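Module 6 notes. Inverse folding takes a fixed backbone as the condition and produces residue identities as the prediction. Think of it as a translation problem where the source language is geometry and the target language is the twenty amino acids. Below is one complete input and output pair. Work through it position by position during the lab.
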């Protein structure tokens, strides 16, 4: 059975590691002289614990697919399938009304923004590693080197803002389907707090969306609010290090504060939450939440 190593031409891993396939079909780490024949895929995943998150099927690297955090598939394909499902339901059985269709177009636009910014975040890691390894005399005395890089934090600010905007846009199809006549609440959380939603939405779907809120969305919104109203996580000074994983392979870790805060003095970094890991997980969870909302149009739901 073919694997991504057989079908892809570039693979981006966690921590800014990227592989390229050359014209002879051999894999090489970008920015180093490491041949992937010496650093196997199994070693990357099992020993270095670096998972692939973005793949490029074409040799020009003009198109990429974002893999989900913690499961199989491809988020771009999942999103395309959700869009196709919406179009079919509009044209065939009429389960999606025109107002809902308009609102879902807005949601799909926002969701595409999320995928775009997550890909940009992954590329900022790759670019930072490349910048570090191209120094004329990169530090070699230690295996962990502080390296100030702002770009991952710029991209995280954009990503977390897009994620919150996407979830808030989900309130529109939910309200149109189950809300009472009158003014629509202004956010995803306020829609779930409305008693009409809890009473009218099928319980299993409501419970899934309630878990979205408590498991990850509330925390993402705190980060977004911190970015918008107080301080970006990067404004405390970029907390990032370069780490030598093999003699020629360096990786980047950039940390988010443990808890968003109104004060820079209260930013703590003891949990060592990596910016890319967290942003990648948020992106996956946002696609999952959209799939749940699409289920409200399923007659069997």
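Target side of the pair, the amino acids:
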């Amino acid at each position: 059975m073919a694997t991504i190593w057989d079908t892809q031409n570039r693979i981006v891993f966690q921590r800014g590691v990227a592989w390229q396939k050359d014209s002879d079909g051999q894999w090489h780490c970008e920015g180093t002289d490491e041949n992937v024949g010496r650093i196997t895929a199994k070693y990357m995943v099992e020993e270095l614990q670096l998972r692939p998150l973005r793949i490029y099927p074409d040799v020009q690297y003009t198109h990429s697919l974002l893999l989900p955090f913690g499961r199989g598939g491809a988020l771009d394909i999942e999103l395309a399938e959700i869009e196709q499902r919406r179009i079919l339901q509009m044209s065939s059985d009429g389960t999606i009304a025109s107002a809902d269709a308009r609102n879902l177009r807005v949601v799909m636009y926002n969701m595409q923004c999320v995928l775009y910014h997550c890909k940009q975040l992954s590329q900022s890691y790759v670019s930072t590693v490349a910048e570090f390894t191209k120094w004329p005399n990169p530090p070699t005395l230690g295996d962990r080197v502080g390296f100030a890089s702002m770009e991952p934090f710029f991209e995280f600010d954009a990503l977390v803002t897009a994620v919150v905007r996407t979830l808030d846009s989900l309130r529109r199809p939910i309200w149109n389907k189950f809300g009472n006549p009158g003014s629509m609440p202004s956010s995803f959380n306020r829609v779930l707090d409305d008693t009409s939603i809890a009473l009218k939405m099928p319980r299993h779907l409501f419970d899934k969306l309630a878990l979205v809120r408590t498991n990850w969305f509330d925390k993402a919104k705190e980060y977004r609010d911190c970015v918008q109203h107080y301080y970006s996580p990067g404004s405390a000074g970029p907390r990032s290090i370069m780490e030598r994983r093999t003699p020629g392979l360096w990786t980047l870790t950039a940390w988010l504060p443990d808890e968003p805060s109104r004060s820079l003095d209260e930013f703590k970094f003891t949990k060592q939450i990596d910016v890319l890991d967290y942003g990648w997980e948020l992106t996956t969870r946002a696609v999952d939440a959209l799939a749940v909302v699409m289920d409200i149009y399923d007659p069997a739901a």
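Reference fact for the lab report: The mean pLDDT is 84.
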